[in-house]
Amino acid sequence: MDNSKEKLAFDKGNYLLLLAGLLCLIVGLTLMAMDNEPHGFGVLGLTLGPIIIAIGFLIEIFAILYKGKSKQQE
Questions:
Q1: pTM over 0.90
Q2: How far is residue 45's CA from residue 28's CA, in Å, rounded to a whole number?
């Protein structure tokens, strides 16, 4: 049985990127909800909100696939 420290799937950097992506998603949805045009057909509902949401999803995907600089094991 090995007494070494258990390795987690994500590092601190991954979790920070996941939180940044989640924040982008929340901001994008909030912008879409703030649109005052009927049926959400304004700039916030059709352009800016979806772009920020797409950026949030890209950040989330990058955060999951990102592997930080590995430390050399001795």
A1: no
A2: 9
Residue 60 identity: E
pLDDT per residue, tens digit, the chain (74 aa), is: 555 567 788 899 999 999 999 999 999 999 999 999 988 899 999 999 999 999 999 999 999 999 877 655 44
DSSP sequence for the chain: ---SPPPPSS-HHHHHHHHHHHHHHHHHHHHHHT--SGGG-SHIIIIIHHHHHHHHHHHHHHHHH---PPPPP-
Q: Where are the domains of the chain?
A: 12-65
Residue 58 structure tokens: 């890209």
Residue type, 40: G
